[in-house]
Amino acid sequence: MIETLRVGAIIVLVVLGLFFTFVSATGVLRLPDVYSRAHTASQADTLGAGFALAAVALALGFGTTSYKTVLLLFFIFITNPTAAHAISRAADEQGIEPWTTDDDRTDRDLYEASEVETDGGVATNGGEQP
After folding, report:
1. What is the CB-side half-sphere exposure of residue 90 using CA atoms within 13 A?
2. Are 63 and 57 in contact (CB under 8 A)?
3. CA-CA distance, 48 to 112, in Å (whole number)?
4. Domain count, the chain
5. Does residue 8 belong to any structural domain of this protein?
6. 17: exposed, middle or buried (C-beta count within 10 Å: 0-12, 13-18, 19+)?
7. In this structure, are residues 116 and 123 in contact, taking their beta carbons and an 8 Å threshold?
8. For the chain, what percentages of helix, strand and coil (3-state, to nearest 5) are there?
9. Which of 11, 65, 113, 127 has a Cα at 20 to 30 A from 21?
10. How far, CA to CA in Å, does 89 sit from each of 30, 31, 96, 116?
11. Region at 116 (left for phi over 0; alpha for psi -120 to 50; beta for the rest)
12. Which residues form the domain of 24?
């Protein structure tokens, strides 16, 4: 009975770890600027690694290896937000502006604006004369 509960808890922790890691990866790929990406990488990735390491510690039982896993978990809880803060601070010092809702230009708009068509040897930008 206890072993079944333990295995169930391990499975739940692994699934939660995979979920938050997937959310973090999706956020890094889909969010518009470095600040949003650093935010999702620090929070969701920390949760994903935390749940996964908790599952590992529970699977290993009580021993020196599980203590090392718990220490690794605390290390990740400290370093991930610190790294995200350092990345965001470096971006701010470089003058990178955060994305706002006023920035209504989408990737499609940027792609269409970068297309250059030639019309009789004269380059036009999207059919409009400069």
Report:
1. 8
2. no
3. 37
4. 1
5. yes
6. buried
7. yes
8. 70, 5, 20
9. 65
10. 21, 18, 10, 36
11. beta
12. 2-125
Extended beta strands in 1-130, E state: 116-119, 122-125
Let me know if residue 61 belongs to a domain.
Answer: yes
Local confidence pLDDT in tens for the 130 residues of the chain: 788 899 999 999 999 999 999 999 998 899 888 888 888 888 888 999 999 999 999 999 888 888 899 899 999 999 998 999 999 999 999 988 888 877 655 555 555 555 555 555 555 555 454 4
Determine, yes or no, domain membership for 130.
no
Q: Does the predicted model carry a pTM greater than 0.70?
A: no
Q: Any residues with CB less than 8 A from the CB of 37 and at least 6 apart, and which?
A: 27, 28, 31
- What's the chain's length in residues? 130
